[in-house]
Amino acid sequence: MEAVNAIGRRKAAIARVYVKEGNGKIIINKHELEDYFPSPLLQYVVKQPLNKLDAAGKYDIKINLNGGGYKGQAEAVRLAIARALVKINPDDKPLLKAEGFLTRDPRVVERKKPGQPKARKKFQFSKR
Which of 13, 65, 94, 124 has the smallest number of Cβ neighbours within 10 A? Predict the structure, then answer.
């Protein structure tokens, strides 16, 4: 099997994922998963689609990540891995879709408006 690639986005984070058969190594920006995401919770988020399909030890995954914070990056990787697994085996799609791993979360930071300190906050109104 040759490498299958997919892309995942969340907030400002973009994850490009390359999945090929192997023994379960996950490399993110040339670092091991445990080094890149020290938090066990974020490691769990990244591995969710693999654990759901019992494929944790079947594939080697190489990930290029940029933009965003660590939470957005972890969720972008989760989406990309889920999309790659569906490309490998389309029969897994209903299972991953039911868990919400194939849904792109569209929420992004609202832009700051002119004449205001933040996106929605207004300067204090003074009558006099």
Answer: 124
